[in-house]
Write the structure tokens for this entry.
Amino acid sequence: MSEPILVNVTEEIVRGLVSFLLRGPEYQTFCKCQTCEYDTVALTLNALPSKYVTSLESRDEAFKMMNVPENIELINKGIIHALHAVSKHPRHKVEPTSL
Ligand SMILES: [Zn+2]
């Protein structure tokens, strides 16, 4: 048995997808500051069921179960919704220079 861990697999997936989408061609005009990125992740995660696991084995199993096209598509929809909400009402203090 590996050391116990406590992670939300949904969070892991959403963080990865948000980071990926923000760096892709479709979202070039969206702010990439840490505030906006975290706000997008938080907003997305608040609308999704969490999936907590306590071992690496169950983390891998949950990741495999969740990392299927139908589910990723559903999560992506939530992220895109959140991206638009955040870009409409950004919390960053200054107008960011292009990053
Ligand atoms: Zn920002």
User: Anything to note?
Assistant: Helices lie at 9-22, 34-46, 56-66, 69-88. Residues 31 and 97 are 9 Å apart (CA to CA). Residues 31, 33, 35-36, 90, 92, 96 surround zinc ion (CB under 6 Å). The chain has four helices and two strands.
